[in-house]
Amino acid sequence: MDALSARPKGIALTDKQRIAWLRLIRSDNVGPATFRDLINHFGSAEAALAMLPDLSARGGATRSIRIATEAEAHRELEAAQRFGARFVGIGEPDYPQALRQIDGAPPLLAVKGDLSVLNRPAVGIVGSRNASISGAKFAAMIARDCGRAGYAVVSGLARGIDTAAHRASRDTGTIAALAGGLDQPYPPENVGLLEQIWNGNGLAVSEMPFGWEPRARDFPRRNRLIAGISLGVAIVEAAVRSGSLITARMAGEFGRLVFAVPGSPLDPRCHGTNGLLKEGATIVTSPEDIVEALAPLSQPDLFSLPSAEEPKREARITLPPDETDRALVIDALGPTPVEVDDIIRHTGLAASAVYLVLLELDMAGRLHRHAGGLISISMAD
């Protein structure tokens, strides 16, 4: 499986660029998708940082936008170094190849452990926190065999299925995606397991700042990491309303394979997985089902194309749109999510002008981003 572990090409960030990237992603109203648009439009994080106050004001912000300072960025980098961690940018060689292809991939990942695990094809394994004995055993079997076949196993460090998957793949390579900062793992009883992971043949990864305690709304972002890093995701025991099904949905949106282990219709923990099978997920009754399905997707050049979210060399700085053009874009928006291309066609404006107005609204906190790159604005705006 050496071919699957081939190190991808990339360009390392300079220390100055890394500070600017960290400042930008830690500033108010800047998420991964907004970060990408700012870099694409202004050419660099430094140029984008300089424009944030003007963009926010033109977008109708009622208060000044908070921009992360150089001192704050340096403190976080120093905290990472003391913790034995580092930040990997989306265009760098160690950034997961599959993750960089998804819409809204995190521009920076905090990582700790064996970085070589990120350069291997990965399979996600998630499921019920309140797992049955048979469910945990089967998850461990999948993780062990996928690991032996050369795949990194990705999961969320949760109780139950996640724990079984991590433990079974510690020797072959496992990735723990965290909902909080690397120094704020959850749940507390798995801290020892996490230390075994990053001190061995595994790695922990997070897009959240150091010191960030995970909240309920942060776990879908963790699930997004699992789905994005993986070529396919296996669901072992999941209730109808569960984070595991969120991971499965995201995996489907990213074009990943979704696997489901069938279970008893009398067990509520299996209602979600059985539902996935009805919707077309690939049935899994042995680890070989996953290994064979992923084999055609595991070629080293599968994700070799440059990412659309990597920095562009030429900036597209334009003059601010006039009030007439700005009003056209705002009037075209509403509470129903729409595609940006539809706004461009509807208004007849140049794409660069539309994107600039959207950045203004975004920096003012007025724009809402949805799955699939759709956007909306509330009627109150």
The CATH C-level name of the largest domain is Alpha Beta
CATH topology of the largest domain: Rossmann fold
Round the Cα radius of gyration to an integer and report it: 21 Å
Tell the overall outline: globular
Mean pLDDT: 90
Contiguous uncertain segments of 5+ residues: 1-5, 303-315
Percent helix range: 25-40%
Number of domains: 3
What is the helix/strand order? Answer: HHHHEEEHEHEHEHEHEHEHHHHEE
Number of separate helices? 14
At CATH level 2, the architecture of the largest domain is 3-Layer(aba) Sandwich
The neighbouring-strand order within the major sheet is 1-2-6-5-4-3-7-8-9
What fraction of the residues are assigned to beta strands by DSSP?
5-15%
Terminal-residue CA separation = 54 Å
Counted beta strands: 11
Q: Which structural category do the helix and sheet elements fall into? A: alpha/beta
